[in-house]
Specification:
heterodimer, A: 319 residues, alpha/beta, TIM Barrel, four-stranded antiparallel sheet, globular, disordered N terminus, B: 297 residues, 3 domains, binds flavin-adenine dinucleotide, binds flavin mononucleotide
């Protein structure tokens, strides 16, 4: 095992303490991209051990069938999705799926959605009574009729959801913020007051693709969430803005949106993220995470840094 | 549930890339791990070009586990396939495969009827290859236990040069004699259909040929039939109707837009009926092959 100048093992350089959870690396597999945690183990060479945490698919109180096809389509350097929160319901997840997950490999984070404030609270309470490591509340899903982004765009509603979920769990609570709002920093401030432990920034941007022959939207749900490299600049700015609010409170951020390389991940860390999400990039390269880890490690060594946390928020703004 | 490492990422060298009529291409790739595990009905998820953010799913048409190659047949329809068509032998493509639940042959149904439409023909070629290999595996006391028929339809020119068949099929019109050369080489009867008036082809839908053939079978032979189909949605719906009418089981291979192709995103689902009620199942890993009865009604 290689050692850095201050004697730290190279594998530890990537370790991150995130809200008291030990992440083996700063990478987090993002909600909706890896099912309920095991789907990608079909791919030879893929391992959940390569990431610090895995966010499970958005989960609601009752099962949901989700949206009609098409649910995904390619767009310039990205994709649209409108899955519609297809999931088997929180009880099934807790009783049938969590017992099958190997918690020695990584940390598993639940992703909670709802149509009412009460539903968010109830799903959170059920996850609280489970082995899940942390709870991410998705107040930014653009693909369901009620709830989701409707809560996330309104700071009062966002704070309400955080408050009731906070009351329902003692596990680390991560609030996933929407980029589809006017003042993300103000929203973040309110969520911190309401008791969030961390943020995930950002969820997808709302978008549309049109089939010019049929003159209909390509996506069955008409509109969908845009992800992938196309949204990276937007995501970086949002992380930077939310970090200005968080830094004084010691509230960490999972930066995300279009990360596909070590360079992308480093940009997010420098902008203020403590961990970095990888979603859409997996679809192109299922083995991208070990390569990102390698690239971050090489960068740290090149810059004489002993741990990845030293990079967080080191952005130097131009005068 | 733990899924085993059954899908591989391979940097596959292009061995050959043949242009066929109708903007169709046959692509042979050196992908030994995929070739070793490939089954008829399975597909690969391909990086067509570094500038496109998503992969494209294409069925495996043939695989040679010994030589380590797989062969695909595709038609240029948009940006991905257009860029793929520009790739040259010697270049490498990232292949993710083999993916999906394949077709299942049942010993109780040794008269498989294979129906392929357009770029749905490739998995039928692969299934015919599997049947051919089963027939030629040396089993003491048993010769040629499988009696397949392959029917293919296309509105663009076929990607192979049809050949007059040497194999007689008494229940089909005598003027319908165009066959797939590879099937002739394997001794498997095949016939073609098209609305474009191609010589030797049935002038109409491929399912019309299927009906003629099914209707002429005696009860014992009919009971041995299982239908396997891949092609455009209306063709699959017609196959499902035929299967119901003749009381035969039918497996269909479906298509849907995909993102991950390994079961992670739920982007590729179709509505199916299950014993526990309606469900949305993923074409990539729950399919692409489904029981027609659960999808069409
Ligand atoms: C399991 C499976 C097996 C397939 N096998 C074959 C095959 O053997 N030969 C062949 O020619 N085609 C096959 N297809 C269809 C092929 O994937 C599409 O024609 C191709 O993705 C079109 O990409 P494009 O960029 O050229 O077209 P565009 O229309 O520009 O594609 C835009 C987007 O839509 C998606 N898309 C468009 N049409 C389809 C489609 N029919 N199915 C899935 N996604 C689509 C593309 O993946 C892409 O993300 C298969 C599809 C599936 C799901
Ligand atoms: C197919 C798909 C499904 C998603 N489902 C969810 C979800 O259920 N809950 C959620 O909070 N975010 C969901 N997201 C958003 C991602 O978790 C992530 O925030 C976003 O895609 C940006 O990151 P990326 O560009 O790396 O994919 C989904 C994204 C995609 C592409
Ligand atoms: S394409 Fe992602 S689940 Fe099928």
């Amino acid at each position: 095992m290689t050692e850095t100048r201050d004697g730290k093992a190279a594998s530890d350089m990537l370790a991150v303490d995130f809200c008291g959870m030990d992440f083996a690396t700063p990478l987090v597999l993002l909600s909706g991209c890896v099912g309920f945690g095991e789907e990608y183990t079909r791919v030879a060479g893929f391992s959940n051990r390569d990431v610090g945490a895995v966010c499970l698919k958005g989960t609601t109180l009752e099962p949901r069938l989700g949206n009609p096809p098409h649910r995904v389509c390619e767009t310039p350097m990205g994709m649209l999705n409108a899955i519609g929160l297809q999931n088997p319901g929180v009880r099934h997840v807790v009783e049938e799926i969590l017992p099958g997950l190997d918690f020695s490999e990584t940390r598993f984070i639940a992703n909670v959605s709802g149509s009412t404030v009460e539903e968010y609270a109830e799903v959170t309470r059920i996850f609280d009574d489970s082995p899940i490591d942390a709870i991410e509340i998705n107040i930014s899903c653009p693909n369901v009729k009620e709830g989701g982004v409707a809560f996330g765009n309104d700071p009062d509603m966002s704070a309400r959801v955080v408050e009731v979920c906070r009351a329902a769990t003692r596990k680390p609570l991560i609030t996933k913020l929407s980029p589809n709002q006017t003042d993300i920093a103000e929203n973040a401030r309110r969520c911190i007051e309401a008791g969030t432990d961390a943020f995930a920034v950002i969820n997808t941007l709302m978008g549309m693709a049109i089939d010019i022959e049929s003159r209909t939207p390509v996506i069955g749900n008409n509109q969908g969430g845009l992800s992938g490299p196309a949204i990276k600049p937007v995501a970086l700015l949002k992380v930077h803005q939310v970090y200005q609010v968080c830094r004084g409170h010691g509230i960490p951020i999972i930066g995300q949106g279009g990360v596909a390389s070590a360079e992308d991940a480093l940009e997010f860390l420098i902008a203020g993220a403590s961990a970095v999400g990888v979603g859409t990039a997996l679809f192109y390269d299922p083995l991208v995470c070990p390569r990102i880890n390698e690239g971050i490690r090489a960068y740290l060594q090149r810059h004489g840094l002993s741990e990845v946390g030293q990079l967080t928020g080191t952005l130097v703004l131009n005068d | 549930m733990k899924h085993r490492a059954s899908i591989f990422v391979e940097e596959a060298a292009i061995l050959s890339h043949e242009a066929c009529p109708g903007e169709q291409y046959i692509l042979r790739l050196q992908a030994p791990r995929t070739a070793a595990r490939a089954r008829a009905g399975a597909f690969v998820h391909l990086q067509c070009d570094a500038l496109l953010p998503m992969r494209r799913p294409l069925s495996i048409m043939r695989a040679d586990a010994g030589a380590g190659w797989i062969e695909l047949l595709y038609r240029v329809v948009g940006a991905g396939t257009r860029r793929l068509a520009q790739r040259r032998p010697g270049e490498r493509l990232s292949v993710l495969g083999p993916i999906g639940r394949p077709f299942t042959l049942h010993d109780s149904h040794p008269r498989p009827l294979l129906i392929g439409g357009g770029v749905g023909i490739p998995p039928m070629i692969f299934l015919a290859q599997e049947i051919h290999q089963k027939n030629h595996r040396k089993l003491p006391g048993r010769t040629q236990p499988w009696h397949p028929l392959l029917l293919a339809g296309s509105e663009t020119p076929f990607p192979f040069k049809p050949r007059p068949s040497q194999i007689l099929i008494p229940s089909l019109p005598p003027e319908v004699i165009a066959a797939i050369p590879l099937m002739e080489d394997w001794g498997i009867p095949s016939r073609l259909a098209s609305g474009q008036g191609f010589p030797g082809c049935h002038d109409g839908y491929v399912t019309e040929l299927a009906r003629l053939w099914l209707a002429a079978l005696d009860e014992t032979a009919l009971a041995e039939v299982e239908i396997f189909a891949c092609g455009p949605h209306p063709m699959l719906a017609a196959c499902a109707r035929l299967a119901r009418e003749f009381g035969r089981p039918c497996q269909v291979s479906l298509e849907e837009f995909m993102a991950c192709a390994v079961g992670g995103c739920a982007g590729c689902t179709v509505a199916v009926r299950t014993p526990r009620g309606p469900a949305m199942q993923r074409v990539c890993v729950d399919g692409p092959v489904f029981d027609a009865e659960t999808v069409f009604r």
